[in-house]
Amino acid sequence: MMGRAHLIISTGVTLSVMGMSGVQVTLPAAAVALVSSLLPDIDEPNSLLVRKAIPAEILRLLQLAMIGAALFVLFYGRDYAPWNFALAGLIGVVSFLPSRTLRHVVMFLIGLGLIAFGQGFSPWNLIAGSVLIVASLVTHRGFTHTIYAACGWCALLYFASQGKEGAESLWFAGGLSYSIHLLSDALTNRGIRPLPPLKWRIKLKIMSTGSRWGRTVENICILLTLVLLWYVFMASG
């Protein structure tokens, strides 16, 4: 499914289930549900979540900065020749990598930075940093689209929210929204492998992402989600 559909369906169904099950619906829980609805696709550099977090403008600035750094090393590191040429060449090559690869590089560096310098936001810096590093190293619809990842994300939210007000709402919203994303992708022709290294794949083959029929299925699911939200939070009082 496309990012827009995941955002609306996973978040909407999660909030509706919380409302029906009596779990408190709070603003932080809604925010966690929204982020979790897109989080499995963090392993795809061109996904909605990653493109919004690391827009093309940031990549262009990074490329310019790296080119400048390469020139600086080349001309001001002449005392260390020929190593200055080697380092400048390496930086230059990295600066011309495809945008997909550059986004992975940026994600990895941000993850390292959060872990190393974000102690003031502990444990959230460790959670975000670890997620970014792992996501930059795995393939799309790989580890992040497994039951292991869903359980791991839910566990991270559970332990990180202990002692905070509305803790139950946070891990419940995050775990459910993440899982609904996986179930939505299971509708596609490609499906998901929930328990690697087992080759078992869940693929219902109801739709193909990006196709005309796929968009129709997404729109139907979005409409049903909006109806569910209306019923839970308005019609039922």
Automatic annotation (TrEMBL):
InterPro entries: YdjM-like. It comes from Paenibacillus lactis. The keyword Transmembrane applies. The keyword Kinase does not apply. This is Inner membrane protein. It comes from the Bacteria. Pfam families: YdjM. The lineage of its organism: Bacteria, Bacillati, Bacillota, Bacilli, Bacillales. The chain crosses the membrane at residues 57-76, 83-99, 105-135, 142-160, 213-233. Keywords: Membrane, Transmembrane, Transmembrane helix.
